[in-house]
Amino acid sequence: MRRVYNFSPGPSAVPEAVLNRIRDELYDWQGLGMSVMEISHRGKEFEALVERTEARLRELLAIPANYRVVFVPGGATMQFAAVPLNLAGAGGAADYVVTGHWGKKAVTEAERYCTVNVAADAAATKYTAIPPRESWRLRSDAAYVHYTPNETIGGVEFHFVPDTGAVPLVADMSSTIMSRPIDVSRFGVIYAGAQKNLGISGITVVIVREDLLGRARRETPSVIDYRAQAADKSLLNTPATFVWYVLALTLDWVAEQGGVSVMAERNSAKAKRLYAAIDASGFYRNPVDPPARSWMNVPFMLADPNLDKEFLADAARAGLASLKGHRSVGGMRASIYNAMPEAGVAALTDFMADFERRRG
Ligand code: PMP
Question: What integer pLDDT is reported at residue 360 of this predicted model?
């Protein structure tokens, strides 16, 4: 068996300890003589897993008592609709700050359900920078302000939480959650698909401030109605049980590593190493404004794009997988989520230096 360093943007690398645990428990989970994917979501064993998952998430992110956590299907894309349906009310308006591909997608979906005001848009920088907070044109009657703390494709990350006064801040944290400590009390709603730092695809975590429950429009499907799911402990219908189990194991792994502050130290060191290698070379280039560079997704271009194919093929042979950049940005992208060890980033920077020596 051969494991490679997997730089995929999501679904992405799962910690090896989690994979081992899944293998060990697959045929007989908790002495039941069945796998976790074969048991009822209404049984006491699965209910205990549900409770344990929420408790772990609360502990790791220090979620205050006046926030509810719901686990829902549909990915972050479903939340693009769920957010306006839950928060905007009929005929309501919301502010959106767009710093890349996913923010734009959120706008397009929200426009079906509410009046969208694009308060700031980084298009003029080709989504390589964050528009200064002072330049945002927020509506006084907005139901919320939505933004994307980390743009997975462009590699643009907020290293601060913007102040929106009394207007609830809604964050799509799909590709940054659990990478560093956050002050949950600054947010109205935080949502994230699981397939980067929380496990595998098929479940979405939503953290919602209690006073925002109960504002959903009547036609909101109950599966994505925050209050309805909170009332039913997120078991309103049959959930993705196996995925939930992987989420629980992944959170346990983060806790065993020492929690989110340890993740943050490692992530900062990994990102620093990779950006330093890129910046020190005349052969590689990262287009993002340095204060907005992502810790999680690092796009980089070769001076000669004709070498892209060769770079990717050689990297794959060296055990460095899934480095192809998104077609809208081109070049390469290294996604270095929590599960990517520092040794993986070192292997990448060594390979990059070697490739430059040979082909630069
Ligand atoms: N938002 C962000 C920031 C993402 O990275 C992604 C997926 N890569 C999405 C939304 C969409 O997630 P999903 O495909 O799970 O709906």
Answer: 87
Q: Which of 112, 67, 57, 54 is nearest to 212 (CA)?
A: 67
Using 50, 70 and 90 to split pLDDT, how confident is the model at 341?
very high
To the question of pTM greater than 0.90 for the whole model, the response is yes
| φ and ψ of 44, to 5 deg | -70, -30
Q: Are the CB atoms for 264 and 242 separated by under 8 Å?
A: no
- Give the integer Cα–Cα distance in Å for 350 and 31: 45
For the stretch 19-56, pLDDT in tens is 999 999 999 999 999 999 999 999 999 999 999 999 99
Q: Among 101, 104, 109, 174, which is best to mutate for testing ligand 1, by the most ligand atoms less than 8 A from CB?
A: 174
Q: For residues 349 and 358, what is the distance between their CA atoms, to the nearest angstrom?
A: 14
Dig out the tokens for 340 from the structure.
Answer: 């990517």
Does the beta carbon of 197 sit less than 6 angstroms from any atom of ligand 1?
no
User: Is residue 148 in contact with ligand 1, taking CB distance under 6 Å?
Assistant: yes
Residue 1: per-residue pLDDT? 78
Report pLDDT digits (tens) over 232-275. Answer: 999 999 999 999 999 999 999 999 999 999 999 999 999 999 99
Q: What distances in angstroms separate CA 31 from CA 52, 76, 230, one per listed residue?
A: 18, 35, 30
Q: Judge if the beta carbon of residue 204 lies within 6 A of ligand 1.
A: no
Residue 327 and residue 210 in contact, taking contact as beta carbons nearer than 8 Å: no
Sequence-distant (6+) residues with CB within 8 A of 111 are: none
Give the dihedral sign, CA 343/345/346/352.
positive
- Sorting pLDDT into bands at 50, 70 and 90, what band is 2? confident
Ligand 1 atom 10, closest CA:
76
- 297 touches ligand 1 (CB under 6 Å): no
Tell how far the Cα of 76 is from the centroid of ligand 1, in angstroms: 5
Which atom of ligand 1 is nearest to 10's Cα? 8
